[in-house]
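Deliverable D5.2: sample structural annotation.
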Amino acid sequence: QVQVMESGGGLVQPGGSLRLSCTSSGSADAINDMGWYRQAPGNERELVATVSRDGTTHYADSVKTRFSISRDYTKHTVYLQMNSLSPEDTGVYYCYAIWKPYVGPAKPAWGQGTQVTVSS
C-alpha cells in the first residue's frame, strides 16, 4: 500500500509564490505518474500538473507559464512550484500517485489535500 502526504499550502498575496511538496511512502513495485489536482469551492476537481516516471511533464493551460512540477526520485517526493499566483488559483490542492503493487494492476493514491488561498 502507498500513501501520499502534501505540505506547503497557505495564504499568499496575489503575485506571490508557494511551493507544495508531496511525499509517497509504503511498499510498491513502482510509482508511476505523480501530480497535482485542485478543487475550488463550487468547482470540479481539475488537473494542474503531472510528472511521469520517466520525467515527462504535463500542465493545465491555465498554469503552464507559471507553475513547475518536479520530482525527486530518491526522496519519493514531487514538488509544485507556483509563481505569479492569482485569486483564481485558490483551492484545495491534492497530490496523487499512480502506483503498481507487486501483484495486480496499478492504482491511485490520494493525499488529504492542502489549502492554497491567494488573497490580499
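Annotation notes: The first strand starts at residue 2 and ends at 7. The two ends are 41 Å apart (CA to CA).
The annotation will be released with the project's public dataset once the embargo ends.
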